[in-house]
Amino acid sequence: MSNSVSLTQYLQLSGLAEWATPAFTxxxxxxxxxxxxxxxQAADTAVNWQYQVPELGEGGACSLxxxxxxxxYDLTAILGGQTAANQQAxxxxxxxxxxxxxxxxxxxxxxxxxxxxPAGEAVLVKLSYFGAPSRAxxxxxxxxxxxxxxxxxxxxxxxxxxNSVASYLQQGGEYYTCDPKVQAEACxxxxxxxxxxxxxxxxxDFQPEVFNPQALALLVAVCLTIPDxxxxx
Length: 233
Known about the structure:
Elements: H1 7-13, H2 22-41, E1 50-51, E2 73-74, H3 76-79, H4 84-104, E3 108-116, E4 122-130, E5 137-139, H5 142-145, H6 149-156, E6 160-162, H7 165-170, E7 184-191, E8 197-205, H8 213-225
Antiparallel strand pairs: 1-2, 3-4, 3-8, 4-5, 6-7, 7-8
Helix pairs in contact: 2-8, 4-8
């Protein structure tokens, strides 16, 4: 039994009810089936417990683009240890990430879970990704949400699709810049079957207008699958 909501519930909760057309529903179902087949056939994937992160600038922003912190981020503490269950969860999330990379062809993608870090702060922690190094934790606070789509979606549960970052900024939108080459972003929530927000996914590309209905159907299919494989909180 799935730990996620149905597609209809997902679109309603995330503020995307207008996407619920027969064509979009069929595209999501096709991608879900393909992803499940991929997961069934995939061999266990090596887990990266550590990954490089940028030095953070003033206010915690990734203003020092291309400058990496001396120490990598380690997931061990925030996940409660390198247990067999956590190892299996991260392996499956890595497989989902690999599937999305193969199918989507975008520049960057990350899976984030809402958790408390060792300091007791509510954050989104990056569990699996591909692309350039980026920050590991996004604070789940109203203050940080004022500049971050990730934190905004993690708190509100409402999706944000920005197909032109330049136009978004011109219209007065706040944008957290970690890689200045990013021209389009789709940030979508993850839900438990109860409707509780479990985290987010974030996809980015260096070209504008890439998140068309077909691309978003793939991303929604991924969002409906991930909750079954997240580490226990």
